[in-house]
Amino acid sequence: MMTKVLLRLHEVPGIHKLDIYRKNQGYQALLKASGMTGEQIIRLVEESGLRGRGGSGFPTANKWHAVAPQPVPHYFVCNIAEGEPGSFKDHALLRNPHQILESTAISAYAVGAEKAFIYLRGSFRQEEAILNQAYEEARRAKLLGPDGLVPVDLVIHRGEDSYIAGEETAMLESLEGKPAIPRTKPPRPTEWGLWGAPTVVNNVETICNIINIVLNGPAEFRKFGTLLSPGTKLFCLSGQIRKPGLYELPLGTPLSTLLNECGGGALDARKIRAVFPGGLSTPLLPADQDVPLDFESLKEAGSSLGTGGVIVLDDSTNMLQVAIEVSDFFARESCGTCPPCKIGTSEIHRLFQEIAKQNSENEILLLKIQEFCEMMKFRGNCAHDRAAAFTVLSLLNRYRKIFLSNQTVVASTSKSEQVSTK
After folding, report:
1. pLDDT digits (tens, 9 = 90+) for 323-339
2. How far apart are CA 341 and CA 239, in angstroms?
3. What is the pTM of this model?
4. Whether residue 189 is found in the same domain as residue 238
5. CATH of the domain at 280
6. Do residues 167 and 45 both lie within one domain?
7. Which residues are bridge partners to 310 per DSSP?
8. Domain identity same for 71 and 189
9. How many domains, in total, are found in the chain?
10. Quick check: helix, strand or coil at residue 284?
């Protein structure tokens, strides 16, 4: 059931220390990569079929191929700005700091970047200290840094604490000392990134797979997962479930396996109703739709793998309260730059609150919410408005009758019945 690839060393006592990490094959992949060309490493990644684990599922090698042949300078950014409600995998990966440092150095070297940035969420103060300490250890050992096995200077940067800072172009703005506001695209970061130079931005879970791919080859990586979605995935299970936690499973694992075999099923005398399969930014799915957890299957089912933050709702859940909290999250975390997003998300939240007053015009209010969702689709500089629109529409499509009912109760009966969006 459980597979340990990325989390293989996380239970090793003292794994944050250089000597313990090296005793467990630490920096062997970097040593091997130092004897290869960047193109050879990119070819391995391409053969592995590795896809982005931060939400988009974009083929990793495609980004790398886009940057590597361009005129220098190049930059590489490791994204650890985790802000998606329901996701805590990035924070967990930080328990093994050398794994992150090694994979970042290999990735930067592969795309021809002499400088790489590890961008941390603003609240990760302790994690920043642990990463800095690990980096200093590895620098003194001549493993990392400009005088390391590969000539890549690593910069650990703790940035903003906002959700939108996780969007790749907003992150680049933040690294340049500006507010984390998404840029207009095109151009993409691979064309015009950090300080106008070609830049690769990858999520930390994505690049942690590079160690296994370089050390053991693409075939070993493809032993797990499906043909189009190879490898494992970190799933963050939370909400109304017996055993919440972090689970590493092969992509393509059925949703029921995660919920019942890993998570232990529903709480006493309850039944799982639905899940957000990849955090609040992915459309809701009914739990009886036993979808394989991979990029293609979830897209076909009308949702997305997202970050893998699976939030579970059972039959005691007040779905109107969920809609209020979800719409509040999207309104609160909008950067306010694009009018369709700024106005749309705040109006949707206001309208759901009006519905909660048991207004006789609930049908009209729901139609207005639907209109705002349609207006927001594909209108902004980033995916925030799109995510808000499709998530809210999934709630409308599945629970319209509940929202129309004048007997809907707003207040949840217990703290465990609320969806945490903060």
Report:
1. 999 999 999 999 999 99
2. 27
3. 0.93
4. no
5. 3.10.20.600
6. yes
7. 237
8. yes
9. 3
10. coil
